Structures
1.
Amino acid sequence: MIIDCHGHYTTSPREHEAWRAAQIAALKDGTSPPPRPVIADEQIRESIESGQLRIQRERGTDLTIFSPRAAGMGHHLAGADANAHWSQESNDLIHRVCQMFPRNFVGVCQLPQAPGVSPENCIPELRRCVEQLGFIGCNLNPDPSGGYWTGPPLTDRSWYPLYETMVELDVPAMIHVSSSCNPNFHATGAHYINGDTSAFMQLLTADLFADFPALRFIIPHGGGAVPYHWGRYRGLAQDMKRPLLKDYLLKNVFFDTCVYHQPGTDLLAKVIPVENILFASETIGAVQGIDPETGHYYDDTRRYIDAIPWLTPADRQRIYEDNARAVYGRLSNQLNHQLS
Ligand SMILES: [Zn+2]
């Protein structure tokens, strides 16, 4: 089985994002929020069958761990209440996709984070999504300010209540920023990769996993700059008198394979232990074109994993399936439930 641990509903019916725009406009005008959007099952079916499901079939993958559009989370655009409604709308839509296509999608939720608001406020929505909707993880934004990094790092104790709930529910978080409102940082070209890299460095400097040995994070986009600069991070940890990275981070931190060329994927698999790599494509996502050097889609990441000569069949089995089942502790049961 090939499990893609990183997909967003980027093709959601336009009523969905139009509702968010109307909600933001109403907040600005001081008027009452718009009524919930009406989206027909047929619209959802059409968007998935012509989009993500078609690509799954073309590329021979089986299951996508599916979450709301990351850039659409926009935690910096509104306060906690409005973001809570927006998260519910977005997560309910993912739930409908998973109900319609139970073999192909399992849900991961957006959290109603907001700048300056304790992450504790996300616990009710996380519980609702896991306990009632069958979701198996969450996307955690390390910078709800959208590119200005005004909040505390991920190792700050203000995050702890949320982490306690994640551990209790046995769900990991993908550390994933949303859009950027800082014009210095292009969203998917700079802000995403900054977010991945910055989050890893935050984790390196503290003892978060001594407090939460069962907490699990996935760093997407191949871990940002981390694998390429692994020596820098090992060296920084050494200078700070930290233990070896493999001993204090790699039991809890995992990397996806959203690296859109062969040499980068080779490097990821050479530097990061196979146990810590989860297959992903982030399809349909930031990079949608065809690479003229190969004739294949940049985000057809399965080709790169298949082409790494030194990986054994057991290694590929781990990257494609076993690691995802281990990191997303509820995945196997949820899949059985969806197929029963
Ligand atoms: Zn993403």
Note: The pocket of zinc ion is lined by residues 6, 8, 70, 176, 220, 282 (CB under 6 Å).
2.
Amino acid sequence: MRRKVLVIGAGLGGLAAAISLAQEGYAVTIFEKNAHLGGKLNLHREGGYTFDLGPSILTLPYVFARLFERSGKKLEDFIALRALRPHWRNFFEDGTVLDLYPEPERMAEEARKVGEDPRRVQQFLAYSARLFDLINAGYFEQGLDTSGEFGKFYGLWKFPQFDLFRTMHGGVKRYLRTRYMRDAFDYFIKYVGSSAYRAPAFMNSLATIQFRYDLWYVDGGLYKIAGALQALLEELGVQVFLNSEVTAISKEASRVTGITVGGRFHAADIVVSNMEVIPAYENLLAEDEKFLQDLSRFEPSCSGLVLDLGLDIQYPQLAHHNFFFSNNQREHFDAVFRQHRLPPDPTIYLVAASRTDPTVAPPGCDCLKILPHIPYIDDAHPLTHDDYMAFKECVLVKLERMGLRDLRKHVVVEHCLTPPDIRQMYYSNKGSIYGVVADRFKNLAFKAPKQSTRYPNLFFVGGSVNPGGGMPMVVLCGINVARKVVAWDQP
Ligand SMILES: Cc1cc2nc3c(=O)[nH]c(=O)nc-3n(C[C@H](O)[C@H](O)[C@H](O)COP(=O)(O)OP(=O)(O)OC[C@H]3O[C@@H](n4cnc5c(N)ncnc54)[C@H](O)[C@@H]3O)c2cc1C
């Protein structure tokens, strides 16, 4: 008899875990509360425009490819990947524009344009690469979770190499001199929704993920990834139930025994939760206050205002990925991550997928997704819908000031998600968009472990467990969680 695994949630983490466990021979069933596969990897279509509602930057596609290779297939037979140039275009209030390129010669030109010594950029990237290689070997590839596992893999003598006594910004400042380069490289922290002034220096490894392994787009939009994974699930015989919210995980002593969906109990040998750790312990397992209090160091990452705009014109100055920087990025980070208020002058991420892909907007029109990072929901002092709408206006005014003239006059389609919408859609902790925050002082950027500390046959996958948020990381987590299940279940 094959052992039975029930997976709660069909986000990328849940799908990667389900696929990997099915490849190991388990009988896997997924229950997803929404009507689509992919969780935050999501799509919105309106009036001839197609928006990636969640992720828009694909990095480390080799991690996704592993899921297919294990079934003797190739990722590129399912989706068409395209490397983007430039990676990002960065706009500053004084009119400076800086592009990021992985090719050293092109990057050197950009560095000179803003008065930065190109050698410093390459030295910074070499530092980033050392950090990445260190972290990748154990934390990513081995799926390390506990201090014991870290000690065993790395040994004490390697800890100084993690640059533990600096913040991410401290690491950037050591190498780069101009505020343009500093702001741009600090903003790699966007990938995990945290603050460069509070994240540990080893988060500078994020630059290598992009500079060494490139930045990718999927033709037709990133949501195509969900379709590719669905084909693999079908091939492996994984059962998927959509519109099926799990309302409880049942437990007996130190084991979980199954889950409840629509009032019906489903027995399981093993449960894998793609619902985040804190909401799952709180709402599905009803754990005690003391236990939940211990989890509070796994504070949520930021949330976001997701604004999709279909325009009746194109702004040719935009690249595919763009950042419009705050005039004082320290204040931006401080407002979002320390004061938990809406930043008066935010750094804004803007995707114009229509720059690369003619299928996502009518001819001659731009399709924009605008995403400023904003605080997660403070339930004691929640912001109102009017607060979010006033902030939206402030974002549009800033974009108009920084070159998107008359932007508001050219909007023909508008769709907006606020943090309460995001929480309601994905049941993420306080509307978080990347899971747990990376904070040197709160958790040293570690997330919760993949195996429950209370119930050994309960596992977690996704942005709230190691190694954390971002598409490739949650997929890697799914692969590693399956290895943990096998190691525990078939010792
Ligand atoms: C606006 C936005 C922009 C982003 N940009 C990028 C980017 O450019 N690049 C990048 O790599 N990452 C990006 N991310 C982050 C990335 O999307 C996430 O880290 C990743 O997709 C999360 O996957 P997950 O499996 O952890 O969780 P989720 O995608 O949240 O999946 C969890 C699933 O569980 C379901 N669920 C929860 N509770 C229950 C329940 N009780 N019963 C049944 N189902 C349940 C939810 O409905 C959901 O489908 C972005 C995220 C957002 C929101």
Note: The CA atoms of residues 244 and 460 lie 19 Å apart.
3.
Amino acid sequence: MWDLMRKTLPGPLGLYAWLISTRWMRNNGARGPIGVTVASIVNEQILDQVNNSIRDKILKFAQEFGDIKITSGRRTIKEQAEIMAKMKNPDLDLYGKGGYVAEIKKLEMGTNGRDVEKVQKILNKYLKKGSFISRHLKGQAVDISMKYGSFNLGRAKSIAKKRGLKYKVENSRNCFHMQFVPDGTREKQGEK
Ligand SMILES: [Zn+2]
């Protein structure tokens, strides 16, 4: 509304509307006039490793959402195994009904999680068969911390949705997972 007013109001009134709009945006997470907003992103270098299409969307997400802390981007199979080895069952279920989920669940859960090598073996077996494991392996997903700053889940969901990002909430890792798959790429329900 203020943006429209400063464009339509003449002279000093327009300037006044501009000052209020700038202040309004600052109080609401943005940093100054539209177009020069800069949110601080912790671990921004992780974005250099993911695909450009999701990188751009995450930057725009942060611009609107405010400060974020990135906790994961593109992963190797070993990194994926390390994460899944520690995952609690409800979060493993976010991976859908792939046979590998059932096999990982069968592994003994120790104080430090499951055996990483065993998890990696399972993942490799299923990847060889052509199973889908995670958007992270393809550089199509980014996780941000839900414990950083004044994280608001409702806002995160609505901004992600607006930006065309699919999301999942990973409670045991305190992660808000966002992924983007460009048109034409196969995406089944339950994939993450
Ligand atoms: Zn994720």
Note: The radius of gyration is 20 Å.
4.
Amino acid sequence: MAQNIQFKKISQCFLCGSKKRVLKYKINSFKIKFQYKQCLKCGMFYMDPMVSRASVPKLYEKGYYTGEADYSYFDESKNKKVVIAARLSQVKNISKFVNLNNARLLDIGCSFGGFLEAVSKLYPSCDLYGTEISDFAYHHLKKNSKTKIFKGDINQTNFPPQFFDVITMLEVIEHLPSPRKDLGTVQKLLKPGGLLVIQTPNVGSLEARIKKGRFTNFLPGHLVLFSRKTLRQLLKRAGFKVKKLYYVDIDPLSYSKYKLFQKECKEPSRNLIEHYFRFICQLFQTLIGHINFGNFSIAGGMTCYATKS
Ligand SMILES: [Zn+2]
């Protein structure tokens, strides 16, 4: 279990620089207690005090991956078939935006490499790279994969500029203490016109608004949370052009949330009816993820395809 997590006060919004913010939610449902504030100028959601940069890797020790930590989803290595199947559909989506044959692709925060494995299945000629900050995931992957994996965050790597055709950040950007800096590095590493894929929770969604402090994506590891508006703003400032933004909770996320619900249901206050009700809601949510009107969306997740402008 993650021990000795240190927090650091945030002096201003990383997106717009404003110091004006409001306390939104205090989250007390995990062993690690934390709170979110919202910038009054741009609407950005962020943890404040925030888990310190030095403490971030402590959140992703063994218990996070095996499902033992109270804020983890499920053991990916034991549900490999599900993960790969879901990731294959994601690779197909990405291939609509870029030719993956002979492309060079980097997956930031690649975990156990499920996504990279899916790419190699469909596009064996694709040159694959991954980064991972977690010791546990890194050593697991090193043992089981031939992909080129680098331990550390994107700013600690030494890839040459304009090296990649595609960079993916799948359920990763919300875990970063300074996403603006990281996207600056990503921009430098992409070839002109290269594709960036970001999949992240949507804090502006109807699901988040209804659930308020019980939004499933309020987790100790989620340091910043985007809405469609703030994600677009960040991408624009970092030198990207948004091609498409989908509000679909793709399968691995839905499945992992379902597992989290299952875990919650083991608490005595939950009953079987609620358990199945939530499962049906989860399925329904995947379907309604396709519905959106401008800035309004229902589902709690989004996937954005952007090119280096
Ligand atoms: Zn702001």
Note: The radius of gyration is 18 Å.
